[in-house]
Amino acid sequence: MLRKMKVSKLGFLIVAFIIFSSLQSLFAGEGMWLPQFLKALNEKEMKSMGMKINAEDIYSVNKGSLKDAIVQFGGGCTGEIISSQGLILTNHHCGFSYIQSHSSVEKNLIKDGYWAKDYNSELACAGLTATLIVRIEEVTKEMLKNITPDMKDNQRRLIYDRNQNELLKNIQKKPFEEVSIRSFYNGNQFFAFVTLTYRDIRLVGTPPESIGKFGADTDNWVWPRHTGDFSIFRIYAGKNNLPAEFSKENVPYIPKHSLPISLDGVEAGDFTMIFGFPGRTNEYLTKEGVRQITEVQNPVRIKIRDQVLKIMDKYMRSSVKTKIQYSALYAGIANYWKKWIGESQGVKFTNGLERKQRTDEEFNKRVQTNPNWASYRSLVSDLETQYQLLEPMAVAKEYYAEGFQRNIDLFNCYSRIRKLSETYEGRGEEIFKSKRNEMFKSAEGIFKNFDIQVEKEIFKNVLKTVVEGVDSELLVPYLRDQLNAYKNDYSTFTENLYTSSAFTTPDSLRSLNSLEFPQWINRVQSDPVWKFYEELNYFLINGIQKRAGEHEENIADLRRRHMAALMEVFPERKFYPDANSTLRVAYGKVEGFLPRDGVTYLPKTYLDGVIEKYVPEDYEFDVHPKLRSLFEKKDFGVYGEKGKMPLAFIASNHTTGGNSGSPAIDAHGNLIGLNFDRVWEGTMSDINYDVRICRNIMVDARYVLFIVDKFAEADHILSELKLVHPKNNKRGKQKL
Predict the structure, then answer these.
(1) Taking the domains of the chain in order of start, what are their residue ranges?
(2) Which of 262, 260, 264 has its CA nearest to residue 721?
(3) Per-residue pLDDT tens for 618-659?
C-alpha cells in the first residue's frame, strides 16, 4: 500500500487525510523497515511517537545493539535472547513441533508443560536452529551488473545467478559466518545478509497447552485474546562461543546483547516496536492482483482446508493418541485457513479493491501527463490482462496443491522416496546405498504422526472436491481415466490406493527398503501412490505450468517495472520493501479499534478473561487448577496491575507470519511483550494495510514472568533475567 510519504530534507510531513483520501493516507504503524536505514528514514518519526533510544541502539555493526538479541527461530519464526546465558523467548506455537517431538501418551509435555530444573535437563531439539544477523550490506550495483532494462525476468535470473556467485566469493566473512543475497522491491534492490546460525538449541520451559494454546482454534486470530503463547529455549555454543553441532560439551551462548524485561507494562498510546523476520507481504499489488488473491485463490484454499480440519478434529476429539499425532499439523493448517478467511473479509470490509483501484487510477493519471513516463502508461492494464489470462491455471494449481500436497502426509512420504530415486539417477548406486537408510528413516518418521484412517478419509473427500472444482480441461488425464474406471467411486479408489501401496505403512516401507536397487526401483515405479503423484507432477509441469509460466514470467517482469515506476511517480512517498523473511522493524502504538458498528475493542486483556471463558475438560478452554487457584487468591506477585493480572495487548505494528515470537519493545529498548498473532479483521494487512483495523497481538511480558514464577516456580530461570522499571527511571535500567 502507498501510505508512507517522503516530502523534503526538513523531515517527514503527515499530509492531511482529506487531501489523499482518494489514495492512501500516511499512518504511523504501516511499514516493515530495514533496520540499517532507520536513521535516515524513520528515527525522527519514531522519536515523535515516544521512542527514547536512537537508531544506532537498534542496529549497529560497531557495538552491541538490539539486533544482536533477535534470532530467526527455526527458519520460520522469531525469537529474542533474554539472558546473558543464551535464553531464547519465542511463541509456544513456534516451538510446538519440538514440544510435540518430546511428548508421548506416558509423558505428555503438550498437556502438562515442561520446566527444566538445570542445564542437564534441558531437552535437545534436533534440527532446530537460531540465526543471528551479523551485518547487512547493499549490493544492488553488483547484482545489476550487465542487466539491461529490456531484459525479461527469465533472462535477468541467469545474470543474477552469475553475479550472485561472484559476490558470494568476494564478500568478507569470518569462520562460521554465512552470506545470502536477497532481492527487494521486486528485484530493484539487493542486500547481502551475513549471518551466524546456531544448531544446538534446547527446550528449557513451556507451559501446558491450556495456557500456551488457550482458546486454540476458536480464538486464533481473534481479539480479545487470552493465550499465554510462549516457550523458552536456550542456545548452546562451542567453547569459543561459535556455532557447533550438538554436544554435551557445548556451553550456553553468551550474546552481545540481551533484552531487559520491563515490569511497568503498557498503556494506550505507548510506543511499541516489533523486531523480527516477517515472512511475506505483497503491499504494492494492483487492484487485479488483490482481486485474484481474495476472490479466486483464497476461496479454493479455504474450501479444501475446511474439509481437512473437520476430519482431523473429529478423530482428535475421540483419541488422545490421535490428538498428539495431529496437533502440530492441525494447528498449521488451521492457522492459514482462518487467516485467508479474515484476509478476504478484511479487504471487502475496508473497500480494499476500490482503494487499490483509486491508486491505479492516480498512477495512470500522472504517467499520462508526463512524457518521460510514456513507457509506464500500459503497466496497470498489462498486469490486469496477464492476471486474467493466468486465472484458470492459478485456480487449478491451488486445488492440486491444497488437495494433494500441502495438507496430506501421503505426499510427504512420496516426496522423500522421490528424492532417493533422484539420488540414484544423479549420483549412482553407491551414493544411493549410503543415503537410503537415512532417507527411509526420515520417511518412516512420518508415521509417528500418521493415522491411516484419518489420511484415507481426508484423501477421499478432497479428491471429490478437486475433481468437481477443476476445469475439465485442466484435470489430470490419469486421474480422470482412473475415476472413470472406478465409475467415480471415490471411496473404492482411495481404499485401493492406500491398501496396495508400500508408502502407507511402516512395515511395507521397511520391506521396500530391503530390496536391492533394480528390484527397488521396479517396485517403486509400479506403486499406485508413486504413479498417482508422478502423473500429477507431470501434468502440473507440462500441462498447467507450461501454460501458466509465460503469464507468471510476464507478471514478475511487469511487477518489477511497476514497483520502480511507483517510487518514481510518487516521489512524495516513503516506500518500505515487502517482507521476505529478512530482519525488519515495525513501529506503532498501543491502541484499540472499532471492528464494526457498535463494537469497541480495548487494547488490553487480563487473566479475568481466562476464567470467564473457562469450560472444564474442554479441548480449547480448560484451565489448569493451579492457575485457577492463583487467580482466586489474587497471587500475582509483582506482575499484577491494580489487583488484576495483565495478559495480552494490541498495537498498530505492521506484522505478518514470521513475526511470531518477535519481541515487543518499549520506548527504552526493553521487552514488554511477545508478538504472536494479528486480529482477524486486519489479517489483510499483507496486501492492504489499514490502520483503522490492523492490529498485532502480544502476550504481556508480565504474564510470561507470572507463569514462570508463580505457576512453574522456576526461580532458576528468573534469576537469569534482568527486570527493569523504565517508567520510573529515565534510563530504563533500574534493576529490581
Answers:
(1) 35-60+260-282+577-698+722-728, 66-252, 284-575
(2) 260
(3) 989 999 999 999 999 999 999 999 999 999 999 999 999 999
pLDDT score, position 427:
62
pLDDT (0 to 100) of residue 420: 81
What is the Cβ-side half-sphere exposure of residue 308, based on CA atoms within 13 angstroms?
Answer: 30
Spatial CB neighbours of 422, under 8 Å, sequence gap ≥ 6: none
Closest CA to 527 of 500, 490, 549, 565: 500
d(CA 676, CA 659): 7
Look at phi and psi of residue 185 and say left if phi exceeds 0, alpha if psi is from -120 to 50, else beta. Answer: left
CA angle 331, 654, 682 (to 5 degrees): 60
What is the number of residues in the chain?
Answer: 736
Q: Looking only at Cα atoms, what is the longest distance across the chain?
A: 77
| Preceding omega of 208 cis (within 30 degrees of 0) | no
Check residue 439 and give its pLDDT. 72
CA distance 34 to 191: 10
Q: Which three cell numbers stand for residue 48?
A: 515523535
DSSP 711: I
User: Residue 232: helix, strand or coil by DSSP?
Assistant: strand
Distance CA 356, CA 191 (A): 29
CA 278 to chain centre: 7
Burial 257-288 (b: 16+ CB within 10 A, else e): bbbbbbbbbbeeebbbbbbbbbbebebbbbbb
**Per-residue pLDDT at 510:** 84
**Residue burial 429-453, b: 16+ Cβ < 10 Å; e: rest:** eeebeeebeebbeebbebbebbbee
Using CA atoms, how far apart are residues 536 and 3, in angstroms rounded to an integer?
A: 43
User: Top-level CATH class of 35-60+260-282+577-698+722-728?
Assistant: mainly beta
> Residue 219 and residue 679: Cα distance in Å, rounded?
10
C-alpha pair distances (Å), 638 with each of 22, 23, 27, 603: 49, 48, 36, 21
Question: Looking at residue 14, what is its pLDDT?
Answer: 25
Query: Taking the CB of residue 587, how many other CB atoms lie within 10 A of it?
Result: 27
- Contact partners, residue 249, CB within 8 Å, separation at least 6: 238, 239
Identify the bridge partners of residue 114 per DSSP, sorted by sequence position.
206
> How far is CA 258 from its chain centroid?
23
The Cα 23–Cα 490 span in angstroms is 50
Helix axis angle, 528-539 to 409-427, nearest 10°: 80
Neighbours of 648 (CB within 10 A): 25
Within 13 Å, how many C-alpha atoms sit on residue 627's CB side?
Answer: 28
Residues in Cβ contact with 456 at an 8 Å cutoff, skipping those fewer than 6 apart: 494, 495, 498
Q: What is the dihedral of CA 541, 545, 549, 551, to 10 degrees?
A: 170
| Predicted structure pTM score | 0.87
**Are the CB atoms for 12 and 45 separated by under 8 Å?**
yes
Whether the CB-CB separation of 571 and 9 falls below 8 Å is answered with: no
**Amino acid present at 50:** G
Cβ neighbors of 579 (< 8 A, separation 6 or more) are 32, 278, 279, 280, 281, 656, 658
Strand partners, 205: 115, 232
Instruction: Using 70 as the pLDDT threshold, list the residues of the chain that sit under it.
Output: 1-28, 424-429, 729-736
Report which of 578, 668, 717 is spatially closest to residue 273, judged by C-alpha positions: 668
Cell digits of residue 112: 502438562
What sign does the CA torsion over 212, 215, 218, 224 have? negative
pLDDT tens for each residue of 387-403: 999 999 999 999 999 99
Enzyme catalytic residues: 93, 229, 660
**pLDDT score, position 426:** 61
Task: List C-alpha distances in Å: 340 to 25, 279, 312, 632.
Answer: 25, 15, 19, 39
Whose CA is closest to 218, among 373, 331, 305, 340?
331
